[in-house]
Amino acid sequence: MQSRNANKNMHGFTLLEVLIAISIFALMSMAAYQILQGVIRSGEISKRHSEELVTIQRAMLIIEQDFTQIVARASRSESDDSDNIRVLNIGKSLYGSEDEGIEFTRLGWTNPLNMLPRSNLVRVRYRLVDGQLQRQYFLYPDIVAGQEPETQVLLDNIETLSFRFWNNGWQTTWTDSNSLPAGIEINFTSKNFGEINRMFLVSQSGVSE
């Protein structure tokens, strides 16, 4: 009699209870998965943003090194036209740029013990092509026949590129072929970071041969 009564008191889960438990577990699993996915996406976005920030910091360092070491040295152009021999070339669509382009000569190109067949002068261009802020440079400050510039992509997703020049006030053009402005401002618009501008003082050195 006692065994029969014990069997009556023991019973398992009903089908409805099992279904409810499975549903609750599924909902909790889905919520946990969504939280995990959100954490992963946030981590990826943070990593990508950090990488983009490092890239733009590296680009600005290169730009600063170039613009703060500009020297007033006139360079011959591809056309070898004496009217185009200038210490600073700037213009819309210059050098295939989709916005403004600029070209100048800078000092400070490392040549340890003068072992390399070049000087410490480097001719540099900046231009905007296919959404890329490109830096071009030549092995020799005066272009020789057949010489092609080396191209370095500094930044992607760039929409605009422009420059201003300080000479008792800011101006958007520079027409003096023999001297440099007291300061140069570079402006560009990044899809990721918006409008960015930097101003650089320019050394007022004489024309270097």
TrEMBL record:
It comes from Psychromonas marina. PANTHER family: TYPE II SECRETION SYSTEM PROTEIN J (PTHR39583:SF2), TYPE II SECRETION SYSTEM PROTEIN J-RELATED (PTHR39583). This is Type II secretion system protein J. It is a single-pass membrane protein. Keywords: Cell inner membrane, Cell membrane, Membrane, Methylation, Transmembrane, Transmembrane helix. Its main location: membrane. It comes from the Bacteria. It is found in: Cell inner membrane. The chain crosses the membrane at residues 12-36. Belongs to the GSP J family. The keyword Ion transport does not apply.
